[in-house]
């Protein structure tokens, strides 16, 4: 006999339900949901990965409904204790990304140097085809490097310094594909492909959405969250000094 529809799950950052356990199990078996998808039913204190509480192969009797489900993140914290401190910190995210882009660009330039691509003042006289090739290789490197770091550690050098992590709703690290999709969406929607004016407009729109709703589109689209922890004065000063040093290495001293 089919169970009662008392289960809720999170999809694309939104609560879906109530549905039966069989529906969730079917979606997992069909590959439309991960076995780690956050679910909730009366009797559970918070959202919990489906594989921990449901028999995804056969199904088990759900508890009787007694209370409304909690809202999914960002309106309610996911599994585990909520982090301390404010969580809507667009400027912290901006400076963390600035450090990452500068540092990873330096590494990318070092990796591309053996191929003889133009750099520094030679860029002003380089062939347009070479410039486009170098730009494409650099963008590909930035996307892949950030995605790999997020999948391996849940953070990047700039984010780690400023106490920022990117997590799934259940608190785990994003997969490489999740991280790659997120990084690509940030590049296109959040940074406007680095195009003048468009980039500034995109950043303002993203800032407004984060301020109003507490989540960016690229995080909500893949069921991810950004967690901030207290930074402290020392880390803030170290981040400022590091960004200045990396920028000096990238652009060199000002001409006299």
Q: Share of helix among residues? A: 40-55%
Oligomeric state, counting identical vs distinct chains:
single chain
Structural class comes to: alpha+beta
Radius of gyration: 22 Å
Which residue ranges are poorly predicted, with pLDDT under 50 across at least 5 consecutive positions? 59-66, 71-82
User: Can you write the helix and strand succession as a string?
Assistant: EEHEEHHHHEHHHEH
Strand order of the main beta sheet, please? 2-1-3-4
Globally, the shape reads elongated
Q: How much of the residues is beta strand, in percent? A: 5-15%
**Average pLDDT:** 78
Distance between the termini: 82 Å
Sheet with the most strands, sense and barrel status: 4 strands, antiparallel
Number of strands: 6
Helical segment count: 9
Domain unit count: 2
Quickly list its features.
256 residues, alpha+beta, Dna Ligase, domain 1, 2 domains, four-stranded antiparallel sheet, two-stranded antiparallel sheet, 9 helices, elongated
